[in-house]
């Protein structure tokens, strides 16, 4: 038992000493790159977002034949400049992160890596560079720059409500799937290939377009029976739209009921939790503080 305790203590001491050995430069880089509470960190995030947007514009322009034929070389040069900048940023994030492996396998770490790989892959497979539009995901950092904690909390409440109502939503989706398969099959039998219903999947496609009230108009029933079935499906579609909204609304109401919210927000990363008796953030381990969303809406 003492051996286990001694090894645990030694591990803790080793971890603390490893953290204390971090150089001032590494600490400074971490504050600038991962933080946004300092002027330098705020400026870094703003410049990064601008560069990301410019790189996306460059990729989009390069996909246009007329622009690419005239400015292809210049756009390719710009793309390599952007890729080098993002590569340096990625390396600096790995260098300054307290846990490089955790960052590399995190959502933003994977996105950062995918943002630079397509250009290097384009040397072997040129069309691959258009995958760089995945950089738009990195613009999500704008929420940390502007400290829109309220929006981050609303996002967490929405996803928590979706998870809480997932069984009801699953049953609802199965019911809708059953309806569109039956109606699509009936339309295939009633209308046939002359009206564009060349197969059951084609009929199901029409049923989905109709029940969601999209109505592309590429396929339309021609017979009176088919048109009557279409009308019934349209009315069903309006009723169906309200169901998932009601399910999610009820679940979200549990967080805002009674004018007081039990939702707590992490002051470090901006994430939140509505689970009772939870006092620490499940993402970064920092203490949670109560967010009175019930009063402030």
Secondary structure blueprint with pairings:
Layout: H1 2-20, H2 24-34, H3 39-62, H4 65-96, H5 100-104, H6 107-121, H7 142-145, H8 149-164, H9 166-190, H10 200-211, H11 224-256, E1 264-266, E2 272-273, E3 288-290, H12 293-296
Description:
The protein has helices spanning 2-20, 24-34, 39-62, 65-96, 100-104, 107-121, 142-145, 149-164, 166-190, 200-211, 224-256, 293-296; strands spanning 264-266, 272-273, 288-290. It has 297 residues and is mainly alpha-helical. Strand 1 and strand 2 form a beta hairpin. It is flat, with a radius of gyration of 27 Å. The protein has twelve helices and three strands. The protein is 67% helix and 3% strand. It has three domains: 21-147, Four Helix Bundle (Hemerythrin (Met), subunit A) (Up-down Bundle), CATH 1.20.120; 152-256, Helix Hairpins (Orthogonal Bundle); 260-297. Helix 3 packs antiparallel against helix 4 and helix 9 crosses helix 10 (200-211). A three-stranded antiparallel sheet has the order 2-1-3.
């Amino acid at each position: 038992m003492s051996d286990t305790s001694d090894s645990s203590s030694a591990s803790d001491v080793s971890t603390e000493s490893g953290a204390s050995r971090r150089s001032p430069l590494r600490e400074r880089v971490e504050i600038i790159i991962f933080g946004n509470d300092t002027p330098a960190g705020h400026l870094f995030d703003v410049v990064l977002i601008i560069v990301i947007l410019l790189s996306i514009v460059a990729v989009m322009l390069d996909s246009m034949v007329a622009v690419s034929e005239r400015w292809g070389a210049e756009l390719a040069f710009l793309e390599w400049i952007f890729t080098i900048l993002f590569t340096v940023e990625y390396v600096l994030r790995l260098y300054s992160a307290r846990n490089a492996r955790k960052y590399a396998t995190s959502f933003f770490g994977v996105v950062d890596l995918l943002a630079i790989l397509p250009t290097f892959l384009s040397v072997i497979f040129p069309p691959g560079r258009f995958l760089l539009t995945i950089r738009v995901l990195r613009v999500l950092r704008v929420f940390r720059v502007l400290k829109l904690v309220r929006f981050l909390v609303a996002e967490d409440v929405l996803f928590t409500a979706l998870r809480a109502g997932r069984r009801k939503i699953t049953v609802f989706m199965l019911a809708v799937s059953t309806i569109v398969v039956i109606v699509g099959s009936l339309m295939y039998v009633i209308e046939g290939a002359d009206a564009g219903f060349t197969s059951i999947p084609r009929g199901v496609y029409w049923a989905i377009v109709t029940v969601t009230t999209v109505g592309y108009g590429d396929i339309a029933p021609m017979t009176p029976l088919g048109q009557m079935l279409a009308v019934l499906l349209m009315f069903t579609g309006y009723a169906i739209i309200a169901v998932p909204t009601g399910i999610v609304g009820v679940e979200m109401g549990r967080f805002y009921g009674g004018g007081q919210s039990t939702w707590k927000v992490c002051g470090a990363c901006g994430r939140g939790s509505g689970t009772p008796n939870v006092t620490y953030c499940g993402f970064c381990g920092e203490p949670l503080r109560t967010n009175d969303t019930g009063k402030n809406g």
